[in-house]
Amino acid sequence: MWQSLGLTLLVIVATLVCALLFMMFGWYVVWQLFLSKFKFLRELVGDAGTPQAETQPSEAQSERKSGAPLRSRGRTARQRVSFPENAS
């Protein structure tokens, strides 16, 4: 009798631990992929990190204030065209 009761308690505790670990892993994955992009949720959790999504708008605002055109901001090295100075 005590063995079956102990086994039942062990199964219940193991099930709760597995469910808790699964929920924590799911929260971590969703946080890394999606939720950490929202400043409001980062403030609620108390995360002091600054992801790239937050730094990009500040760069755009600083370029608008400095008068730089927005089209030239997003160009990569592949999109830039360089002409040789002496083509002879």
Quick take:
With 88 residues, this protein is an all-alpha fold.
Helix-strand layout with pairing:
Blueprint: H1 2-33, H2 39-45, H3 52-66
Structural notes for this entry:
The chain has about 90 residues and is mostly helical. It has a domain at about 5-40. About 60% of the residues lie in helices and about 0% in strands. The protein is built from three helices and no strands. The termini are far apart. The model has no long low-confidence stretch (mean pLDDT about 75). InterPro entries: DUF4750. This is Small integral membrane protein 13. Keywords: Membrane, Transmembrane, Transmembrane helix. Pfam families: DUF4750.
Defining traits:
61% helix, single chain, mainly alpha, 88 residues
Largest sheet: none
The structure class reads mainly alpha
Q: Please give the radius of gyration in angstroms.
A: 27 Å
- Individual helix count: 3
Distance between the termini: 97 Å
What's the shape? elongated
Give the averaged pLDDT, no decimals. 75
Stretches with pLDDT under 50, minimum 5 residues: none
Q: Which H/E pattern describes the elements?
A: HHH
Helix content: 55-70%
Beta content comes to: under 5%
Instruction: Tell me the total number of β-strands.
Output: 0
